[in-house]
């Protein structure tokens, strides 16, 4: 039997999805599983998007252009202009979800052995895509005690080597919900400029900022317009994750050409998803406000509830729909598995993503989990109750205050 | 401005799509462009697939499982059983088009520097995906004079090094239309077994075999069940290329686990495409027969027509819907560009894929193009007329017989 690649062997299993088989087994046993592990909102897809499907009058569902439908790219340009992001249609390339945008950004910017610096905890799949590209993610730990603010810039600078090609930020942040301030963004800008690095900026959650503090796009930063590689997702924004539509936006001409070669190799992003995405962008302010208000409520409800559980601590997330929570347990990986395998309360259990998979520094996040507040308040309430009981019953609970 | 990756720089532009900007310019000038460059059939998507879209009653277009919807995988298993391919639901992983199946197969099997041997001409994007994975494609030239039959096995064996990890075949073949015989497949099997290699087998066009000779799947070969990595496309089969649904099929347990990590990183294949694909598999024998008969007619019409043009030669393709044609020109790349830039006949021109991009051996395919017979007979007739006139007018035509 031939041996598989070392790359495949060292690829981390997704911390978000690796416990799915255990969750499925729990469901087979008849246990209700509250899914806090994944950013799969239960909110409705815009009706305009669903209607667009019903009104398709094509006889052939053909390939789209490799860079995406022009009409969608035009709508996206208008959308970005509303956020004072000064990009042109030709700066926008449609991808198969934000996932492909990250993969192609790495493939087109990084060679094997190249390094990018990322504050951790960080979205776990960045690591997976970096391994796919043979590149190395170097992390700067941020701390739950400081609400996951940007670590001091000296810590980034200390990690710069001749192989450093970029800095990656996610703003608002997945998994922490942190929103970078203008001061922090300008610090990043200075570093990017000083070392002429790429600035990979994942801004998928820009619509979801809750504290009144402004969302700062990497494209708002003067002087690094050619360095910014903006990662976006349309499907995530409009509660239609399954349509798999994202975008990669850059003004760097050679980079655009390189990305297009990867796009041409995979021929076309999904046609149907593009049709739904285009209609969804017109969903209107009411729809976005409904979604936004719902997250505001859920966020308050979940975070308040978590911080009332003895030994639990969650900073108050400022954006996105995730939070990283410290739990009074010996090992959050073990605890999450235990919840699915060995525990139920009133016929239910909780499915959380162990935070260890969002760190590369060994031992970090050992007592943390990521939760997505993508369930309605009633379900979140039940989930909090189940979590409280699980923490009471778990054999590996710790009395000490969480770190 | 930061420098892009060498990987991106050496990535070949797709020979199928790189001339699209020239074609678009021709269209802007009002020229009718006959698109023979790309395997985008004009035949209708099955009505059952289109209807499935209209009947979607979901309120949320959510992620599917990373491995694809179970109901689709079950239908696919049944489908393969009809071809005596003995695979289980759990051997099937749904991908975003056949493209992603190739990428993930390479990522999960090959490390940077690893080699796979491929008869050429070969589907150009194999090269692109190999470069993405840092792997090396080593080619064995097949010859138009021998109808692109499998080159002698000694030529493969001579290229085997300690880094050789696999052999890749496409059967029926894109771009040549060649259909490998049982004798040839057993020769490949023997080599795969002797050196314990992966056998990547792209069998996207299995429904389209025209000569009565049987389609031999790599899974029909005894003794290499663990070595076979079957690449498939659902969207291509049912004239719905834009839905982006393919599959990777393997019985190699560790490989399945590795592929799943790449699948989890990109979260989910397109949900809507899976819904259409599932309905399309039920399109029925009538639909497939209609498609099949249409290609039989077009194939005969195109190949006869090509072989009547002075200096042109096309072998008779046995399967798929492509052929590689030798033209009486100095340089097919230049000729294809010239057709789009500088030529029209009665307001029309032809868009062909230069074959040089399907070879890695320098100089090979210099006078060849790939044509896809995905247009109706009337259009193919016009395209043949335009090609005839283009060959008369082209400044770089050659009198000599093509090689």
TrEMBL record, chains A, B:
Sample GO molecular function, one term: transaminase activity
Stored CDD domains: AAT_like
Cofactor(s) for this UniProt protein: pyridoxal 5'-phosphate
Alphabetically ordered keywords of this record: Aminotransferase, Pyridoxal phosphate, Transferase
Bilayer-spanning residue ranges: none
Ranges where the Aminotransferase class I/classII large domain occurs: 32-386
Highest rank taxon of the organism: Bacteria
A GO biological process held by the record: amino acid metabolic process
Keyword Transferase: yes
InterPro entries: Aminotransferase_I/II_large, AspAT/PAT-like, PyrdxlP-dep_Trfase, PyrdxlP-dep_Trfase_major, PyrdxlP-dep_Trfase_small
One Pfam family this sequence matches: Aminotran_1_2
PANTHER family in the cross-refs: ASPARTATE AMINOTRANSFERASE
Family according to the record: Belongs to the class-I pyridoxal-phosphate-dependent aminotransferase family.
Listed name of the protein: Pyridoxal phosphate-dependent aminotransferase
